[in-house]
Each structure stands twice: as C-alpha cells, then as structure tokens.
Design brief:
The protein is built from eleven helices and twelve strands. It has 326 residues and is of the alpha/beta class.
Length: 326
C-alpha cells in the first residue's frame, strides 16, 4: 500500500549543533497535521556528535526523516551547498525552513500556515512572529521590530527589496518550485534565505501572522549573530549586488539599490572605527559606484549619535562632566 504524497517538506541544515539539534527535530516531530510531512536534514560533516544523533532519529522515524550526510565539509560559502541540497530534495507542495539551532514551539504551526496558503493562492510565502533567544537567557519577543507587529500584515517583494529580510527563518513556509532553477551565482551569495525569499516573492505576496510559534537563537556561533555588524553588512552588500543581476522590475531594483546604499553606509560606518587608511580606500571605491553613499553614511552616523545621546552611558558621562565643572 503506497503512502500519501508529501504535502510539506521541512528543510533543516546543521553543522556541529549537537547542543541544539534535538530541540529542532522534536519541534518538527510534535507537529499535528492532517497531511504528510517529511523532514530533510542536511548535515555538513559535523564532528561533534550531531550526525550520530541524526542517524538515531532516522532509525526511529524512517517514514518522516531523510538525511543528506555530506562526506566532507563543503567548500566556498559556508553551508550554501548544504542548504541547496535540502531544497532540491524537497518533494512537498510547500517547504518550511528551520535551521538546526532554532526550534518550533506550536504544534499547530504547519497546519495553520498550509491552510492559509491552500485558500489564498495570491500568497507565495507566509511567516510569523518568533521569540528571540540570546545565549542562555529566556526567549523574548522583539517589540522593536516594526515588521513583527501584534496584528496580521501583508508584505510584498517591493518591501522585501527595500527593507531586507522581513521574515525570521524558522517562521517561513513557502510554495515549492515557483521558479525552475536557482541562479548560477547562488552559491556565491553569503546570504541564502533572503535570496530565496526574494526569488519566491516574485510570484505572490507574503502573509505575516502575529502568533509567535518558533524560537530563533541569536548566539555567538550562529550564521548571523556570530559575525560583526561590518561582516554582516559586507555579506548583504554582496547578496544585493548579485540580486541586482536578476531581471526584477525597476521598482524592485530601485528598492534593492536603496538597501545596498544603506548597507554600504553601515559597512563604512563600522570600518572607520577600525582602520582609517582602509576606510579611506573603501570610501573612495564605494562612492565612485554610488554617489548617494556619503549622504547615507552621514544619516547613519547621525542616527547612531542620536541613539548614543539617548543612552544611559551618555547621560552618566554628561552628569560626571557637569559635576566636574561645579
């Protein structure tokens, strides 16, 4: 007797995440759905025991879990080939994302998202609010993120182009195979999920649910949180430059160019704190490409200064200064 077809595939990538992978896998296994799911886990040649745990899980749940065990660490951009391998292996009508260090907290998450996409064909992606867990601290909601409001919302590719990734990775479910193939440059992009969302958002809107149904770990070994602001800005610059080679319409390209300009300003703003000579070199190179960067840099510096003046550190310094004059 043949099994029902897979309706949703979960893409999970991992590398040396033994401390976290159990929560990630269990968050998938606890899902209550009226459709069949598959969990595709790509392990990028872990050496800390992660792979042994995954093999044991596959032995216990062979009808749900599929493993892609790379025989050696992938070269080039870390994790990109691993990510692609799980996406290519996905057979479901829909795909959900959950990295090996994140986890889901709501048993009805997948059912809610698939039900929405099934009845709203004009949407390509749906996502939701997530808890942020920093280190060993208790997970908390990010109340400052204007794209994670307490009410439902709809976003589109224009907003994604201008403001960057509006979705948290463990919150995303999207329609599979909206485009025939990934760009040949995908492996060269330091950012994978944002590029994926931009490619999918060409084919429909993005639905946001305010219910927090997952936990995103922001930690020192994470793909994003483990890097400096300067390195992340440089990574986004590269991804945006690659995206601009795609045949998006002009309003979307203008949004990408605006975001790229702001990322360049962030990069330069961080660089000036570290190495003046290299900053001078990079400033000249970047401003030749985009005359709008100096203005964006000034705006970035002003915003940082305004934020500093409103901080407790500044108030304490100001108080000490006034005390020394009295």
């Amino acid at each position: 007797m043949s099994q029902d077809p897979v309706i949703l595939s979960i893409s999970m990538i991992t590398y040396n995440q033994k401390a976290y992978i159990k929560e990630a896998v269990e968050g998938v296994l606890m899902q209550k759905t009226n459709f069949r799911i598959e969990l595709i886990i790509g392990d990028d040649c872990s050496t800390d025991g992660t792979r042994d745990l995954l093999i044991k899980y596959r032995e216990r749940y062979p009808k749900v879990i599929r493993l892609i065990l790379h025989p050696q660490k992938n070269e080039g951009i870390p994790g990109k080939m691993n990510f692609l391998s799980t996406l290519h292996a996905a057979t479901g009508k829909y795909v959900a994302l959950c990295d090996g260090d994140d986890y889901w907290t709501d048993r009805g998450k997948l059912q809610k998202q698939v039900d929405f996409l099934e009845t709203n064909p004009e949407y390509a992606i749906c996502c939701h609010r997530v808890y942020i867990k920093k280190g060993k601290k208790k997970p908390k909601l990010d109340d400052k993120n204007i794209f994670a409001p307490v009410t439902e919302a709809t976003y589109d590719i224009g907003m994604m182009a201008k403001y960057g990734n509006l979705t948290a990775t463990p919150s995303v479910v999207y329609r599979n195979k909206l485009f025939s193939s990934f760009p040949t440059w995908f492996n060269q992009s330091p950012i994978g999920d944002y590029v994926l969302h931009m490619l999918n958002a060409q084919y429909g809107k993005i639905k946001y649910f305010p219910e927090p149904m997952a936990v995103y770990r922001d930690h020192s070994t994470g793909a994003w949180g483990g890097k400096t602001v300067k390195v992340n800005a440089a990574g986004m610059m590269k991804a945006l430059e690659l995206l601009l080679t795609e045949p998006f319409n002009e309003p979307v390209k203008e949004g990408l160019r605006e975001q790229l300009r702001n990322q360049k300003a962030t990069y330069l703003n961080e660089l000036v704190k570290e190495d003046w000579d290299f900053f001078y070199h990079e400033f000249n190179r970047i401003t030749k490409e985009d005359k709008g960067v100096p203005l964006a840099l000034i705006e970035k510096m002003k915003n940082d200064m305004d934020a500093f003046r409103g901080s407790r550190t500044y108030r304490a310094m100001d108080k000490l200064k006034r005390m020394s004059k009295s």
